[in-house]
Amino acid sequence: MKGLAMLKIGEIGWIEKDRPKCGSSDAIIRPIALAPCTSDVHTVWEGAVGERYNMILGHEAVGVVDEVGSEVKDFKPGDRVIVPAITPDWGSKAAQRGFPSQSGGPLGGWKFSNIEDGVFSEYFRVNQADYNLAILPDRMSLESAVMIPDMLSTGFMGAENAAIEFGDSVAVLGIGPVGLCGVAGAKLRGAGSIFAVGSRPNAVKVAREYGATDIINYKKGTAKQILELTGGEGVDSVIVAGGGPDILIDAVKIAKPGSVISNLNYFGSGFGAEDTLPLPRVDWGFGMAYKTITGSLCPGGRLRMEQLAEVVINGRVDPALMATHIFNGFDKLEEAVLLMKDKPSNLIKPVVLLE
After folding, report:
1. Number of CB atoms found within 10 A of residue 205's CB
2. pTM of this structure
3. pLDDT on residue 270
4. 168: how many CB neighbours lie within 10 A of its CB?
């Protein structure tokens, strides 16, 4: 079968591989919609998770079941499914403790394009299919569905972890697709003021559609503007969804005592020699200002996908608004990935449709 792979750090290309074997609890999926992610860019061009050779990329997919293992009960060939970006081992201790994305070790639930071949191929394998697949609702578009596995799940997790209560003020630092979903999640959780930090016109338009009350152009100083708008108090919750290592400085500066800073950022590059992230000592109250910083990887799994599908089909959010560039045909996948790397100003998210 054909797949688009990371050949080595800094290089991608098409390769041929054997079709994956289907284990007793597995499913083999044929993709019908795919979406490149900024994580693919971090992985390939920044070497964020280390060297990978001939590893098929991609972790955002909607597909059709082609084959199931003998133990799979809930899915059959021909079913159209949403495939979570994170496919945990649900019998692991980490999953039983409530941290399924960490099954098998740190980030171990992130299998696709990390520790095994991803979804950018003619066929791919899903482990524990009964727990890691969800039926694609008939009335959901592919453009919407392919945003659920990672963008919607991760962005909503940012709002969940930020402990947002009714009427809270929230800052979302970065309004790429994950940050936009953080804005939508904050609104659904009852936020009052939502400060969306970004400047790209398409992203700003969608941020307002999703519930942003104020747009902050980071080029004019993020912390300065938000502190001025909040009378120097800062915000109740911060969702970090973009930027380099220094973004945490702004996050801590604008966070009230007692607030939560919910990090979604994949810090792939831009570190100092010691590979550390900076925190502003005084603004963090010398470590004693009750400003909690949490970082996590979206949980994945079947139930998560089903819950998010309910949010979409009932009109709570329209993820298709983020699909600014639509490609048709498997051979367009490389072009879409390179577009995600180059990030033209009108881009939010490219989607590749295969049917």
Report:
1. 13
2. 0.96
3. 59
4. 20
